[in-house]
Amino acid sequence: MAKNHHQVYLLFFLTAAAVAATVSAAAANLTAYEMLERYKFPRGILPQGVQRYVLRPDGSFEVFFSGSGCEFRVGGRYLLRYERRIAGTARAGSIRGLQGVSVKVLFVWLGINEVDRAGDQLNFHVGPLAASFPLRKFAVSPRCRCGFDCATAGDAAVAAS
């Protein structure tokens, strides 16, 4: 009878290992944008141009862009900068300890250290201050230099010619 228990434990262990390997393999094939969606964030909080990313089992991550990073305007009011490497820790609906993302307020660059989702709103924290934006504004990833307005700027240029 003890032999049967050992076989059951072995079978359970092998099944669990196979499931874990499948989940890891599936996660390894996902893009950084798809991983954001798994954490309940829209892909548009990350600009286009991710070269690679590392996601560890504890939720800590690093995302790498080519060149010197990415900069663009949001709503004509804020200038955002993503360094070549950004990092933090992701949980469902929250990113903490964010490094490498900053916003220019007046003449000063301030680091965005946290992002969380509250229903249909995204809250971006800069120290004790926060700004909220509708989730729908981040449905698509912005492009470096022109942000979310790339298509609009291109359409205006075509219409003007």
Shape: globular
Give Rg in angstroms: 20 Å
| CATH-derived topology | at5g01610, DUF538 DOMAIN
Q: So what's the CATH class?
A: Mainly Beta
| Biggest β-sheet strands, sense, barrel | 9 strands, antiparallel
How many E-type strands? 9
CATH architecture: Roll
The separation of the N and C termini measures 84 Å
**How many DSSP H or I helices?**
3
Helix content: 25-40%
Mean pLDDT over the residues: 79
The ordered H/E elements are HHEEEEEEEEEH
Keywords: Signal
InterPro entries: At5g01610-like, DUF538
Signal peptide: 1-20
Describe this structure in words.
With 161 residues, the chain is an alpha+beta fold. The chain has one domain (32-160): Roll (at5g01610, DUF538 DOMAIN), CATH 2.30.240. Helices cover 28% and strands 40% of the residues. Strands 1, 2, 3, 4, 5, 6, 7, 8 and 9 form a nine-stranded antiparallel beta sheet that branches. A hairpin with a 2-residue loop joins strand 4 (78-91) and strand 5 (94-105). The radius of gyration is 20 Å and the shape is globular. The protein starts with a helix and ends with a helix. The relative contact order is 0.13. Residues 4-26 and 153-161 have low confidence and may be disordered. Pfam families: DUF538. Keywords: Signal. Residues 1-20 form the signal peptide. InterPro entries: At5g01610-like, DUF538.
Quick overview:
The chain has about 160 residues and is of the alpha+beta class. The protein has helices spanning about 1-30, 30-40, 150-160, and strands spanning about 50-55, 60-65, 70-75, 80-90, 95-105, 110, 115-120, 120-125, 130-135.
